[in-house]
Design a protein that fits this description.
The complex is a heterodimer.
Chain A: H1 12-33, H2 45-66, H3 69-74, H4 76-93, E1 95-97, E2 100-106, E3 109-111, H5 117-131, H6 139-157, H7 162-178, H8 183-204, H9 207-217, H10 228-240, H11 251-254, H12 266-299, H13 303-327, H14 345-363
Antiparallel strand pairs in A: 1-2, 2-3
Chain B: H1 2-22, H2 24-35, E1 36-41, E2 48-49, E3 55-67, H3 75-86, H4 90-99, E4 109-112, H5 117-125, E5 133-142, H6 150-153, E6 156-158, E7 177-179, H7 182-186, H8 188-192, E8 196-202, E9 208-215, E10 222-225, H9 229-242, E11 246-252, E12 257-264, H10 270-273, H11 278-286, H12 295-298, H13 308-318, E13 327-329, E14 332-335, E15 338-341, E16 349-351, H14 353-359, H15 362-372, H16 374-383, H17 405-408, H18 418-424, H19 435-447, E17 450-451, E18 457-461, E19 466-468, E20 476-477, H20 482-497, E21 513-519, H21 524-530, E22 539-546, E23 553-559, H22 569-583
Parallel strand pairs in B: 2-10
Antiparallel strand pairs in B: 1-8, 2-3, 3-4, 3-5, 6-7, 8-9, 10-18, 11-12, 11-23, 13-16, 14-15, 17-20, 18-19, 21-22, 22-23
Helix pairs in contact in B: 9-22, 13-15, 13-16, 13-20, 14-20, 15-18
The chains are: A mainly alpha, B alpha+beta.
Chain lengths: ~375, ~625
């Protein structure tokens, strides 16, 4: 199944960039979760968990690299069905943390099925549009795609995990765009969204979601309360300066002024400890990963491959840009991780599986 | 699509550049304030030693419980919990906080001074409910002998805003502990040291994580006093033993060093060190015996017969009389058409200067007064330190008064009547003195005319061993004739050792010279009017030096309400015995038990008023 020559078509540069970003992430997790007291201190458990997760993620990556993506796409309906089952299971039987039910406890691990939504939906939609020779020309196809993406999005939003749910939307749109969805439709959808915004504000959003948006607009309204994270994020980033305070010397992250520093705000900590220069390096790597992946989509020998890569990388790019914007205190705070860097086992495994597919598509660009 | 994404990244680069480079300064400052707290580290005050190196005043660490408002989310709640946990009065805590609400919110406000260990335990147990409440170790002033030498040492308490304008409090901040009386105030600058501070790193919950920077406090200088702890103790013990309040100052007549200094009743300065509570303060303020008054420096009393020493010196030095000048005392004499009594109805007969001093013959001194006139008395009294400030290095000294024609011009009745001189010449009339000025007089008479400035500072240690401090220059020098000195010394020796009133001060082998006096409280007629309403018992003086030919200790015992000067003499005796025993390495003396036990006569309505008030011994 794996031909030897394929090995030479693996995109080592992309892989290197991914590994580099994960290393930066691990270093920042080490720094922010290091247990200082009692002296001399020790690394926090998150550091080790992340390394295990990366190990598992690399295995997942290899698996998703070795199996021909077309085979995977063909069986995407099963994967999709499995995803829905897991999400439904979570709603009824999931484990609850921080007022949200997002996880399935498997022994000592907590699996977060929603993280695998992006890859599954990308496979599903790539298959759906790729098989359809006409492309997404008619409303029926689009509606079909909308339903495919919409069901898991609603299930995830119910957990509630608006952040992760939202990241599925760009996956769907990315594929629809590549499949020929005209901008006109996107415009119409945006208009609908605006019209729906008012009832959504009043009926669909929960209180904490509303306050997040309000405090984003004016973070100084309540500096100790909801605007706190945003304010602290800006202080964290700004105080880093050009070259940063040095590894493990950040005060905002180390002393927990910035909440969930190892998770949602890991990029802020990078900015604090490594400064603007560190930010440039990380942004450069992310941009490289995204552009290189888009190139993989372009090089793909078939539409399924192109759509698959496009969908995965759209979701990835959206999440990266949103999280980094939020890290600078410039976007409402949402429970949205930074792929490849943030702490989170399921996120790392799912992201690496996704990149496994991207490498897969590029690697097999010459095969039949 | 690539372009759109690259565009987003470019925007992010710009955003990070704006925050991290363009506005870095601003955010860096906020981050600093976020995680650093400046905690003051009060410097321990300098330790006070006596002349032999015995510790007199030291420091003890106490722990205050304080509030840092900026770390306390809900001050109301915090105070409520704290009050409930420690048993402190919640209203009082609130008042303390509101009184200091204008201070920066990072500055700790002390809520409970000198917290007890149950209070500390209760606080620690509920620490999580008490954000912003901290423990503040504080070196507190400790006076091991409690009220011994209270007026000498003074006390410390928090500086008020108005205090800060005074020179001795330069460098102090509102709320820092400063000396408020005695040596603590006079040498506040030496003793205070320099507060340090500690920059601590705190996490988002205010927990201290590490120390970023520390400027250690500089302890105040160690100060050696001229005080002899044993003589000081003996003096106060004497007062208590014989049941008197009053004041005493013992000096070394060779240099003005203060060996003992007391004013009784005293207060316990330890009460102030931890912050005195309002009721104790009011008690001190309203106590009719005025324990806060430093009688030695601020009490002004009639000198009575002790003033005759000054008159004798004036007469001898001005040449109006020789030591052999004799006066016949028939028990009284008429001057300027008014009859003045001597205290001995039958008269002293013919007396010369020495015997006039010994017997304290009024008629003799009336005669000298008439010959001298008031201004020459004033001149010599001043040279001996009476009516002047002694210049002692302790705060708030007051002047007594020795009348003169010059002074009289400033009063409502500007003309001096020669008859007034007659009263002045036996220490009555307008004359008033402070105990320290009488001690100064005795020192000056003892050493032959040099009025050294009494001082308590002997040496300081800035960390490199004791450096002696140069004594202050003398206030005045009047080289007295040897015959004057001899006459005075002999006459005063006879007071104690022959037929005088000071026999109770006699120490065999030490040739104590002295003089008693009575500070009249009220005139004979006044006494009748005031009878039973106020305490009109007279104060007793005993002034002394020893040995009479080579004096090394001189001083004054002022025994309040003792009625007779000689009753203070045993106190002086005990203090001098202690001094000599210590000097010669003998065991220190102890006081014999009193029989009957010291029962002080209390003025009652039926108590007869001394009828001899007009007549001095």
């Amino acid at each position: 199944m794996f031909e030897r020559r394929l090995f030479f078509h693996v995109d080592w540069l992309l892989l290197a960039a991914i590994l580099a970003l994960m290393s930066i992430g691990v270093a920042m997790i080490y720094s922010t979760t290091y247990i200082q007291i009692p002296e001399p201190g020790r690394p926090g458990s998150q550091f080790y968990t992340q390394i295990y997760a990366i190990g598992l993620g690399l295995i997942a990556m290899v698996v998703f690299l070795l199996i021909d993506y077309r085979k995977l796409a063909e069986s995407s309906l099963f994967l999709y069905g499995g995803l829905l089952l897991l999400l439904i299971y979570v709603l009824f039987r999931g484990s609850t943390q921080f007022n949200a039910t997002r996880w399935i406890a498997i022994g000592p691990f907590n699996l977060q099925p929603s993280e695998f939504g992006r890859v599954t939906i990308a496979l599903m939609l790539a298959m759906f549009f790729g098989e359809n020779r006409r492309g997404a020309r008619n409303i029926g196809d689009l509606a079909m795609a909308g339903i495919f993406a919409g069901v898991p999005i609603l299930l995830i939003a119910r957990q509630p995990d608006l952040g992760t749910a939202v990241t599925l939307i760009p996956v769907a749109f990315g594929i629809a765009y590549l499949a020929g969805l005209r901008m006109k439709f996107i415009g119409i959808l945006a208009l609908c969204a605006l019209v729906l915004a008012w009832p959504a504000w009043h009926f669909a959003l929960k209180d904490y979601q509303r306050t997040r948006i309000v405090t984003f607009i004016n973070p100084d309204l309540d500096p100790q309360g909801d605007g706190y994270q945003q304010r602290q994020a800006r202080i964290t980033v700004g105080s880093g300066g050009l070259s940063g305070k040095g590894f493990m010397n950040g005060t905002q992250g180390q002393y927990k002024f910035l909440p969930v520093a190892h998770n949602d705000f890991i990029f802020s900590v990078l900015a604090e400890e490594k400064g603007f220069l560190g930010v440039l390096v990380a942004l450069g790597l992310y941009l490289f990963v995204i552009l290189r992946s888009i190139e993989a989509a372009r090089l793909s020998k078939d539409r399924i491959g192109a759509y698959l890569v496009g969908g995965i990388i759209s979701g990835f790019a959206f999440q990266v840009i949103y999280n980094i914007t939020m890290s600078a205190g410039l976007a409402p705070v949402k429970g949205l991780t930074l792929p490849l860097m943030s702490y989170g086992g399921s996120s790392i495994i799912a992201t690496l599986a996704g990149f496994g597919l991207i490498l897969n598509v590029r690697m097999r660009r010459f095969t039949n | 699509m690539q372009l759109v994404i690259a565009g987003f990244f470019a925007l992010l680069v710009v955003a990070f550049w704006v925050f991290q480079v363009a506005q870095h300064q601003k955010f860096a400052e906020i981050a600093e304030n976020n995680h650093q707290r400046r905690l003051p580290m009060p410097a321990p005050r300098g330790v006070l030693f006596d002349r032999d190196g015995k510790v007199l005043v030291e420091n003890q660490n106490t722990i205050n419980i304080a509030l840092v408002r900026e770390q306390s989310g809900n001050i109301d709640r915090t105070l409520r919990v704290l009050a409930a946990a420690t048993g402190a009065d919640e209203a009082k805590l609130r008042e303390t906080v509101s009184r200091r609400r204008r201070e920066p919110s990072y500055r700790p406000i002390v809520l409970i001074e000198n917290a007890s260990s149950p209070q500390l335990a209760a606080f620690k147990a509920r620490r999580l409910e008490l954000p912003g409440i901290i423990e503040q170790p504080l070196p507190a002033r400790q006076y091991p002998s409690n009220d011994l030498g209270a007026h000498l040492f003074g006390y410390v308490s928090e500086a008020s805003e108005t205090d800060l304008t005074r020179p001795e409090y330069a460098g102090a901040e509102a709320g820092s502990m400063v000396g408020k009386a005695g040596i603590e105030q006079a040498y506040n600058k030496l003793l205070m040291g320099t507060d340090g501070d500690r920059l601590v790193v705190v996490n988002s919950r205010g927990r201290e994580m590490s120390i970023a920077h520390e400027t250690p406090p500089e302890e105040g200088q160690r100060v050696q006093l001229t005080i002899d702890a044993d003589v000081q103790r003996a003096t106060e013990e004497g007062f208590r033993h014989f049941g008197y309040n009053g004041a005493a100052v013992l000096l070394d007549p060779r240099n003005g060093e203060v060996l003992a200094f007391t004013s009784l009743p005293a207060y316990n300065p330890n009460q102030f060190a931890g912050g005195i509570d309002a009721s104790s303060w009011n008690e001190l303020m309203e106590n009719p015996l005025k324990p806060l008054q430093n009688r030695a420096l601020q009490g002004r009393y009639s000198p009575g017969s002790t003033f005759k020493i000054a008159v004798a010196v004036a007469a001898l030095e001005e040449g109006v009389a020789t030591p052999d000048f004799r006066v016949f005392c028939p028990g009284g004499a008429t001057f300027y058409n008014r009859y003045f009594q001597c205290h001995l109805k039958g008269g002293h007969g013919s007396v010369d200067m020495r015997h006039a001093i010994e017997k304290s013959c009024n008629v003799y001194f009336y005669t000298l007064g008439k010959m001298l006139e008031v201004d020459r008395i004033h001149k010599w009294a001043s040279l001996l330190g009476l009516g002047e400030k002694s210049g002692i290095d302790l705060p708030n000294e007051l002047k007594g008064l020795v009348p003169s024609t010059e002074w009289k011009k400033t009063t409502r009745e500007p003309k001096w009547y020669p008859g007034e001189t007659i009263s002045v010449s036996i220490g009555q009339g307008q004359v008033s003195v402070t105990p320290i000025s009488l001690a100064t007089m005795m020192m000056t008479v003892a050493n032959g005319g040099t009025r050294y400035t009494p001082h308590v500072l002997k040496a300081v240690d800035k960390g490199k061993g004791w450096e002696p401090v140069a004594p202050p220059p003398p206030q005045s020098t009047a080289r007295m004739k040897q015959s004057t000195i001899d006459t005075l010394h002999e006459g005063l020796w006879m007071v104690v050792n022959a037929a005088g009133t000071g026999g109770r001060g006699k120490i065999v082998g030490y040739n104590v010279a002295g003089k008693t006096g009575t500070a009249q409280m009220i005139s004979l007629t006044g006494a009748k009017i005031a009878k039973g309403k106020i305490d009109v018992r007279d104060h007793g003086w005993f002034v002394f030096f020893a040995p009479h030919d080579k004096p090394e200790i001189a001083g004054v015992i002022f025994a309040e309400r003792s009625e007779h000067g000689y009753l203070g003499a045993p106190i002086a005796k005990y203090a001098m015995e202690t001094y000599f025993a210590k000097k010669e390495g003998r065991p220190l003396p102890t006081l014999p038990p009193l029989a009957p036990p010291p029962a002080r006569v209390v003025a009652t309505a039926t108590q007869p008023v001394a009828t001899t008030a007009q007549v001095r011994q």
